[in-house]
Design goal:
The structure is a homotetramer.
Chain A (H helix, E strand, L loop, with lengths): L4 E2 L4 E6 L5 E7 L9 H11 L16 E3 L3 E2 L2 E2 L4 E6 L21 H8 L16 H18 L2 E9 L2 E2 L20 H17 L5 E8 L13 H10 L4 E6 L10 H4 L2 E3 L2 E3 L6 E2 L2 E2 L4 E7 L9 E4 L5 E4 L13 H24 L11
Antiparallel strand pairs in A: 1-2, 2-3, 3-7, 4-7, 5-6, 8-9, 8-10, 10-16, 11-16, 12-13, 14-15, 17-18
Helix pairs in contact in A: 1-3, 1-7, 3-7, 5-7
């Protein structure tokens, strides 16, 4: 409850720093009887882990997960599931130069002023590395939701800097290093060129990521104030570097009229999905559709003005191994966060209302 | 913890339905010793209440607040503060026609499927009327934050449908019926015309609202995952009809480079505010800057296709008294939600780290 | 979450002071579809209310409850249920003499030092009057548990000062002013004499109360650390004036051998109930059996040494209307608290494990 | 929040099973700036660990603790502190015979019916081994409370079966294998004989443990319902095998008169401590005095009647390595739980009321 747990009934308490001995989490509230082993979790971690292409950080972390508890003879027992991932490729010296000054756009400044002490190695706890335990927990949530309701999660990058990536099909997402839902080779090449250019320039860039959940039961969400969409916004804005969140039509709603925005209903289901799958804070059975804005990485080689701990002006250039676009690896993270929100609300719904009443409404 | 409370340490538990006997809330965790009376709360409720111009619902609710507890001889005692607002102008018959069918874009459908029972009078608990208790609680939060840190809250409408409202000065916000930070009479007239036209057409429109908090202490926020910005996103997305939330540069971050986005620091403070006052989930001392997208009201006179409880096709037209743009009254609500997030994090910070270390950094 | 809420999933947030305008609570998480009206709640409040015999405080409070929300057409809707009880017979002048000094054994001293401000009228929030909203909430919990599982709650006074009250039958509890499970007229007369003597002497006395829940499903409780028995201990020790809690054999366990204490099992059920219905923090299906020690009232006419706010020695005599044995009215309170714990764990169980597997095991 | 976390602001989430790969916990909310290393924690674990005398289980567990996070250069950083203890001496075969039947007085029965699946090795999660992580967390709480307020914790066994152990002095506690606060060699010998006899007989026995906290600030506790004493009762009843909890005079209060029970105040402090350091749910500055009843171990060699999973009658005899009196090792556990309650309330107090007002009142 003190800030490092996520979720009320499927509660994930994370720990660890980028360059400490290990990172991990304790998952409390997983329903018993779910078949589970490391093999269910590792593939999701592998989608997120560094070093998979030249466009992401070259830190070599196998991110090998170990289940320490909560599973007996291959089945969850209902007791807490602890996940442990040892850090293996820490090069703390890479970061020595920023221990006493603050990178513009980075949490260095705020951690220092909040706590009066700061682990500067690799960003300490503010590192995007700390999304790994959440992705692990999300894998368990995904498995349960799939088994229970047939829910599936999909995500893609829909914009890289000023390059829009039109959606073609989910099947393309894993065929390129950007999670682009596109088979347009020229577009992918353009993205690669843009990334290569950035890397040479020592700069970074933002991105937009879209995630959806399909086959979501109707009725998930506590309408005020633990709304499903409010919790989704919380989860997404909590991902490192996210600065904006939209559900359904999002900011396009501003210019819409009511006669255009409200998704009409027919006996065959909803027509359209401006709602993004949530009305009044409760799931409708439409796809949950979320879009997030990810800012450019703050650790860049380009020299920038800043101050040191004593308030003296300094110039900061960040060396070390960083993602020039943290958005690239954000897709599996956003999927995991969405899964964690949904399982939590599924359990909350079951507590108050018993089993789900309406499962898969037909969608027109 | 069951869904109707907001905040962990300054915790607001609301109750009530649009046409029930009363609405209100219990505020738990207010620091003792704060001078407080109804006169501190009523003005904020008056900013939000219906019937103040022809552009909002004509329901006549005085929204008179009564403090039931937690205050002794004009000072808070540290015990729960209960706020009670009696409903006075319920015309339940206005809503009889929608008791058995679902308005497109409205929570009718989801409440019904979640609970199997629904109070259809005026939208029941899904009514925007339920933001009143939160505005009341927010008034208390604002008073404490002002006294403690000098924090102030400001908000305005920055877009109405396709009409952008350029920011001129906060002083204009209360001189027009739209919370526009503009003294441009032609612009205000254009907004009035647009609203009149919508009302005639029986339609509704969306809006964008901006809110800021100034003089925020450095260091508020629990970095993962109860980040300050995550909680702001939760609070804002939890306001009725909100579909998008941005902090600082928001979705503009997608196209920014790192060398452009990261706010540089000088001994005199930050240069710029792409961060929106939050880095790594912790406040920087810059203004907290938030922008939200509000969808058009779903209760409109325009006939629309829908279904009834039995899944049969119906045509729905909503009569009764509704805001043609719920965004108009959203500004004080968004300010209140932001204040509630900040006081909660201020208390949380005090718990773990003791008194605030850095209060008002000079901002360049 | 800030201290004035009870329960996680059936969460009761109370408010009010003894001599403020009103007391009450917000109940969040009640399952929808439960038939409910004030008539379900009032009888439980009447069992607890003052003025029912000469052995309890003569304050005349009708304790009339009003449901403000969460019920539509006689059925709970799943939204928060607010209960309001107006205070009617406050005579604040009765308490004026203790506004600046501290009654020995009373919360005066601690409230003052904690908050730096204190509502001294009738004990303010520390008054036993604040158990009324909880009894109201407990009535709803009882109704749901009865409907869902057939669970029933019973309680009695088993000791008044040094007078032991041997258990005969639950049917006698409502036939005497002490909640004694006895039809022994001589014993009841002895209790009446003892109380009359105390009242004359301006003194007070302690009591022991036993409560049981019957027909409890097997499996309720989160084993470490939200154990069912831990939450029962929390609930019971939270009742005003309680200084000790036992489950099952309680302190008799200290002298028991393992071969004597562990309740053997047969195909027909458990033999004995040293466990008090809980093993490893989870309900067994045996009766939940709890016993509590209630200290003597601290507000007595007998002069006692104390200090005032400035630390100066004073003599304190408390006039006004007080219960000479707060234990007398504690039985319905303890039942209510037990019901609140059980419904919370029933909902929590349903969240994680789905519907109850084993309902009513046969008990030998 | 799902049941395996303890504390709201200094929140300890534990994980692990008796015979799984590891046990441990994540401590969330520890204030930054506290000097900390494994050397602060290991001594408390050593006081609790098995194998230290012939009167406790002979399982050989070094209980070596590793800090995985939250500490940088020997100082806490304010981020979560993860503690890991690998299990080393699991002999799962010892327990094979009870995998399909239920030990009388043991959690076997309830875990099975709750979850439908159970880790039977060494009692799985219901093992007293799971108190080790809590003792580790308690060591950190103790260190902070000592540094901040001078608070110290002491505990002893005051009764072993029917052998009362009169309190002489805290200094004796560590000079005998029973945590007896006595230097009476004859008494200790009698206790040793009693234990030897029990072990030969294959039986077990209960015990009473007393713990106190000294130098506790005035004002800790949220009066209704997160009372300090309610949380202490929760914490104590949550320790394995505890069946009763008393604060101060406890069950002796039943026979006390008000004129006897209420601790009088003088300018030099309180006279007596019937309150046990808590009035109205808030600490008084007197010693916090708690007494608990611990039932006899349920795993005994003596044959007992039970049933198997199919409800068939069986005879159960438990072999393996068990404590014949779990009370012996309970003293450090009870101290740790008390420390965890106090730090949580200290932080909660700081959140709402700022720094402690009255620290160490002189006690007469």
């Amino acid at each position: 409850m003190s800030g490092n747990s996520f979720g009320k009934l499927f509660s994930v308490s994370t720990f660890g720093e980028s360059h400490g001995p290990a990172i991990g989490c304790v998952i409390d509230g997983c329903p018993p009887g779910l078949p589970l082993s490391e093999a269910d979790i590792q593939p999701e971690l592998d989608r997120r882990r560094p070093g998979t292409s030249r466009h992401v950080t070259q830190r070599q972390e196998p991110d090998r997960v170990e289940i320490l508890s909560g599973v007996y003879e291959g089945v969850t027992t209902g007791t807490p599931i602890a996940l442990l991932i040892r850090n293996e490729d820490q090069r703390s010296k890479d970061y020595g130069n920023i221990a006493d000054s603050f990178r513009p756009g980075h949490a260095d400044y705020t951690y220092w002023h909040k706590y009066g002490v700061r682990d500067p190695r690799g960003g300490g706890r503010s590192s995007a590395r700390l999304t790994a335990p959440v992705v692990g927990a999300g894998a368990i949530a995904k498995k349960w939701l799939l088994q229970q309701y047939g829910t599936v999660f999909k995500g893609c990058m829909s914009q890289l800097g000023d390059i829009a990536v039109p959606f073609e099909s989910w099947e393309h997402v894993h065929n390129n290093p950007f999670f682009a839902a596109s088979a347009d080779a020229a577009l992918i090449a353009r993205m690669e060129d843009a990334m290569d250019e950035l890397r040479r320039a020592g700069d970074s860039i933002g991105a937009r990521i879209d995630v959806v959940a399909q086959n979501v039961p109707v009725g998930l969400g506590q309408p005020i104030y633990d709304k499903l969409d409010a919790d989704i916004a919380f989860a997404m804005m909590g991902i490192n570097a996210v600065k904006g969140v939209e559900i359904g039509a999002g900011f396009r709603s501003v210019e819409q009229k009511g006669s255009e925005h409200g998704d009409e209903l027919t006996p065959d289901g909803f027509i359209g999905n401006n709602a993004g799958g949530v009305l009044g804070g409760i799931s409708t059975g439409q796809d949950i559709a979320v879009s997030i804005a990810i800012k450019p990485t703050s650790s860049i080689r380009t020299p920038r003005r800043s101050i040191d701990k004593d308030g003296k002006p300094v110039t900061v250039e960040t060396f070390g191994r960083h993602d020039p676009c943290v958005g690239i690896r954000a897709t599996p993270i956003a999927e995991a966060m969405l899964a964690l929100v949904l399982i939590d609300h599924a359990l909350m719904h079951r507590a108050q209302c018993g089993d789900v009443r309406v499962h898969t409404p037909r969608i027109a």
